[in-house]
Amino acid sequence: MIEAGHFAAFLALILSFFQAGQGLMGQRRAAGLSAIVAFGAMTFAFATLVVAFATSDFSVQLVAANSHTLKPFVYKIAGTWGNHEGSMALWCLVGIGFGAVAAKLLATGRPRFEARALGVQGLLNGGALLYLLLASSPFTRLDPAPLQGAGLNPLLQDPALAAHPPMLYLGYVGYSFVFALAAAGLIEGRIDRVWARTARLWALAAFMPLTLGIALGSYWAYYELGWGGWWFWDPVENASLMPWLIGAALLHSVIVTEKRGSFGVWTALLAVLAFCFSMLGAFLVRSGVLTSVHAFAVDPLRGSLLLAGLLVFGGAALILFALRAGKLEAGPNWTTASREGALMGNNLVLIVATATVLLGTLFPLIAEAAGQTMSVGEPYFNLTFTPIMSLALVALPIVQAWSWGKADLSSLWKWGAAFAGIVAVFWLAGIGPFDIPLLAGIGLAIAVWLIAGAAMEIWRRAKTAKRLGKMPARVWGMTLAHAGLGFFVMGAVLETSGRAHTTIALQEGQATSVAGWQLTLDDVESIEGPNWYAERATVTARRGGTVAELQPHKRFYPAAQMPTTETAIHKTGLADLYVALGDGRRNTQGETRWTFEVFLNPFIDLIYLGTILIGLGAFLSMFGRKTRVKEAEA
């Protein structure tokens, strides 16, 4: 069966290049049909890999290296994409899938434009399939087949990590089709309102899963790695954050192009950059140049090929933009003191923020190439990224209230006074048991500012529409996303400023107090799972009348010869009591003392509530009322 899948993947390769040729020549029907058949072929190819993992077919080298007969069935399936070759196969499947969906749904009334977009997408898919089949084939066989496999990386045997890669790839690869639309528009010299209406939907289709994928990865790191935090500025985390920031700028820019016909050149550039940063993320994760718990370490040859692909496709994208941007119409004039001007300022801030993350991510690699060892961590990002993003967040509610074309600045001082008042309230009064320092007070003020701004926007729109039910879904989506951003900021500030952390050592029956909780170690026992052994501690936590039992444990996976930390988290609604089991040490009296990392993380659920609202807002925005465009413009 795996040979049939291998053949189907080559068939998808041929069809993708046929799609590219037919599409670039303007043959809409042939390009669309090729995209759909290629998706069917690649779906079959990927399904053969899934079946090989499900049945523990160790004659397939990929299965032998990343699976085990004792592994739970769900992780056998997830093992299909929990490695370099399988993840690249998933990447190709998603990319071809976007082309197939576009072939079915794309209806702009411009068949040559649609054909060229499908042609560019086919070219990108063909390049990815070439790399997969010639440099990273998941279909290689072993003869003789081993009796047992090596097992999947234990860190990846987790529900969040099973869903995390597919969600990220929907985002990453989704921006490849937004770029395909931009390339087709640049070739035709028309980045107008009709183009923007189409591009906005596809940009949202990429932005939503990318948001949720990043959140899944963050939550996995929070409860699985035992570090107690939710974001570590890990280079691979940064690799997903950068296209998200560019994607956010693209969404705001494409709205201006759709509504006003302006920003055509800028929107096309952002579509190109979103694609380039998605390619950069793939290179950083799979090239082996980064050391990270999230990265796939591969050999230098594959890394060199990925770098070559990044330079070829990214360079071609930028060259196309440089050659064709001058052919685009400028659109209506606008002033700095307008919603257009404010959104342009917002985009510039997001670009600068992305540049700071890029510099912090790549600078250690540059220093290493120069023979120096240097690390860039949280202090750098706190001093650069956070203040830059704060500017965009403070301006957001004001921008929503401004008019298109030219805004009334007479009430600007009222906005400033309101924001200063919110800062003063949080700084002087504080919240709950926390003494709020100035910077945290500003952060909380920004969070309340965003949530209040979203509520005011709904109120303003409701007054215009006479009733809430008449407001289009895209307005609700925008408001939910902005409110979600406020909840995210609130959770991040409260968790960071109020986090309590300590390391304790306890014998069985011993108790101690941590952050208002009394923790008692009841016992530590050995347990066995389907493919692991573990030491599990039972800790009773008491505060007032609340009693909770926590069971953190440390697992050992014999197949992979690798330990993992399984934390225990008790949620109170206002905070997480987070306990991670460390090592046991026997003293001279023969008594064993066990170490624990204990965190109290206040309001951390607001972070994930915020990201869910942002993703939901993006989803609702896809179903908003269509912008009416004059036939002459179409």
Automatic annotation (TrEMBL):
Its membrane topology: Multi-pass membrane protein
Occurrences of domain Cytochrome c assembly protein (ranges): 81-287
Principal place of residence: membrane
GO molecular function: lyase activity
Keywords: Cell inner membrane, Cell membrane, Cytochrome c-type biogenesis, Lyase, Membrane, Transmembrane, Transmembrane helix
InterPro entries with a match to the protein in the record: CcmF_C, Cyt_c_assembly, Cyt_c_biogenesis, Cyt_c_biogenesis_CcmF
Spans traversing the lipid bilayer: 6-25, 32-54, 88-106, 118-139, 167-187, 199-221, 241-257, 264-285, 305-326, 347-367, 379-399, 411-430, 436-455, 475-494, 606-624
UniProt entry tagged with the keyword Transmembrane helix: yes
Superkingdom of origin organism: Bacteria
Role summary: Required for the biogenesis of c-type cytochromes. Possible subunit of a heme lyase.
The protein's name in its UniProt record: Heme lyase CcmF/NrfE family subunit
Protein's organism: Henriciella marina
